[in-house]
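User: My advisor, Dr. K., asked me to get a structural model of this assembly before our group meeting. I'm new to this, so sorry if the format is off. These are the inputs:
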Amino acid sequence: MSAHHPDDLTLLDYSAGSLGLAQALAVSVHLGYCNQCQSQLRKLNALGGVLLEETTPASVGANDDQIPEQNHSQMEELNKSFEALMARIESEPVEPPKRESTGFHNPLERYLPASLDELNWQQQTREIAKFDLTNVVDMGSARVALQKIKAGAKVPVHTHRGNELTVVLKGGFSDELGVYHAGDYIARDPSHKHSPTALQNEDCVCLTVLDAPMKFTGPLMRWLNPLFAWRA
Ligand SMILES: [Zn+2]
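Assistant: The format is fine. Below is the predicted structure of the whole assembly, which you can bring to the meeting.
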């Protein structure tokens, strides 16, 4: 169970289909890990249904206190959201590779090899690697990538020119504000300055969504900026 979640407003926007594509992807990935947010989303979806019915003259008896009983399982509800998202993602036809389930259930799965180790990682430093997801799926102007940090390694102190969303896929990391494990969803705005350190026991892989490139702030680390620039 995750300890760090999207806020209610984000889930509301997700339910309404009004989140940006890349942010919706991050929320979807988190939902795959998080029963609590699945449950919250189910309520929001039901509420959205009630509001829709209320605008239909033929509907009778629907009001805010009578959210319809949900007959679908949590995953069916979630799949509906995923399907809507994937319909938007799949503007260009990409034949997903057929393979056995890896136990890594999230909307990214169809775009990734069976093992994350098989990804064509671009090494940024000896300890940090990146896989740019915008190479395989169109995410508009957002920068969407997987980042891999070696167990115990530290990412140089940086701020962001824009907002950064992180969802931990594997392993975990800590920074000045907390410790994060698989499934955790972390939203940071440009006022945050942090230096994540991967936990010691295994490499950490995260999905990151940026609406502007990272900006390193350490005096010796500015040279890293070009390496982290997207589409360099
Ligand atoms: Zn959650």
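One thing worth pointing out at the meeting: The domain at 107-224 is CATH 2.60.120.10 (Jelly Rolls).

User: Perfect, thanks a lot.
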